[in-house]
Amino acid sequence: MAVANSEFVVERTWEPDHSTPLRWVWSYVRRNMNWVVGLFFGAFGNAAFAAAVPLLTGAAINAVRTGDRDALFWAAIWIVVGQLVRAFVQLLRNFSSEVIGQRLERDVRDELYTSLLGKSMAFHDSKPTGDIMARATNDVREMNLMLNPGINLVVGSGMFLLMPLITAPRMHPQLLIVPALYLLIYFWLVFDYLRQLRPTTTAVRESFGNLNATLAEAIDGIETVKGAAQEERERNRFSAAVAKWRDAFVWQGDVEAVFLPVLLLGVAQGAGFIHSLMLYRAGAINVGDVVAFNGLLLLFGFPTFTAQFAYSQVSSGLAGARRILELITTETDLDENARGYDAPMRGEIVFEDVSFGYNGTLNALEGVSFSIRPGQTVALVGQTGTGKSTLTKLLNRTYDVQSGRILIDGVDVRDWNLATLRRQISMIEQDIFLFSRTIAENIGFGASSATREDIERAARSAQAHDFISRLADGYDTVIGERGVTLSGGQRQRLALARAFLTDPRILVLDDSTSAIDSATEDRIQQAIEQASRDRTTILITHRLSQIRWADVIIVLRAGRVAAVGTHEELMRSSEAYRAIFAKL
Questions:
Q1: Which residues lie below 8 Å from residue 267, measured CB to CB, with a gap of 6+?
Q2: Could you read off the pLDDT of 4-38 as tens digits, one per residue?
Q3: DSSP-derived secondary structure letter, 477
Q4: How far is Cα 531 from Cα 538, in angstroms, rounded to an integer?
Q5: Among the listed residues 397, 455, 407, the one whose alpha carbon sits nearest the alpha carbon of residue 427
Q6: How many domains, the chain?
Q7: Is 433 in the same domain as 305?
Q8: Best label site of 123, 175, 317, 443, fewest CB within 10 Å?
């Protein structure tokens, strides 16, 4: 089942099967059929040449008893040759499984990353970043290990299980009894083992995700933790998460410890030895057959002892696959709408009875209606929590309205091609995100074709060029994650430069000069005035100079439009505006 909605989609020549985790994994594996054939051929060859050793050993013993030196010589030669060939087919098996596993990890990681880019903000708001990171790294790696060594050992051991069934009846038909009974009981025990193992491996993967989320949250909020002197409390939270992870591992270990096929192996080898001796005493087989048959039963040791690890690895990989597939198939609220309206914007904005609330509640905006003409500068004012920032996030469909509609140039934003819509709307928020990359890369983030001259011109317009030039590496200076190595004012000027460079038709400034001193603000104000010419500009601000400068002021109160007008009109007619203005 493919995901119905996605904000970002990569065209594929094929679509993986998302119906179940197992089918999803197989849809990737089957794209490497040459290597799958290599895996099975190598596994069968390895088992066949391993089975040849006890058969040739039995023939050698018979040759010693009869004094046939030539037969003894050739038995020894064939054992040596067989083991040399076995080394090559075993290499083929291991190499094939490694290639399949590495390609699976690569392809799954690619699909997951693309899927995460296409999820809506509502999705990301509900998922801890640490847990997503655990799935994208550790769970994907577990899927690789599921193929190699997991499936590699399962297929290899499966071929070892077949050899006694194929070769033993050639000595005597009754010698099929013990291997057949062993396999029947073995598969039943393994099935029950996997049934018990599944919840434990799922618990291990989930507890690791919770552990990672706890760690990521503490590191991301380290300034708050230290500021409130809560290091001990966070250490205790992390210790509790580690304890849950440990308990899950212990639970898995308890299940693995009770692996009954190991006991079954001893019983089968003992029963096989007694049965072969009985047939020997009856004259049905010779001494060489007794040795060969019991040597074949020793082949059961490899699948028995490796199964305890291999099936655990397979179960863990499938648990990781379930967690990753859960992310990929979670439907997002927004659609890329690749065939939607695609045209240059004029910048006309109309809100028609718009209501919206986070997590499905109608409490952020209710019944909001207003219109903005192309090229107008509009100031949104109101007390904290009145929905100003929420309103702007509906413009570029960071979130979708729950009722009503928003029109840009007369077209519902939901009918626009999402990429076209967002390319022509630039938003600068108070909480600015900068990447751990060079300053030039951060400024040019929204304009991949921008030259260094374009970037410097935008930086000059945003009053950022001077401080950038004073840095050791200038525009090639790598800044820390979120721009922690820069001051608040410097981050905001870089964000302004990024917006100027993309040349949007609608510019949203959400308190974007709050961290800038008065002298710098005057220079940036001039740049903003120049940038806002011939484009629609929405200001969310508490600065009087910017409010006065706006063509239209929209006053929000408790998620509703309380008044609309110019500064002079609102000072005369709106008590809510006068109250805000008086506090400013």
A1: none
A2: 567 767 777 778 999 999 999 999 999 999 999 99
A3: P
A4: 12
A5: 397
A6: 2
A7: no
A8: 123
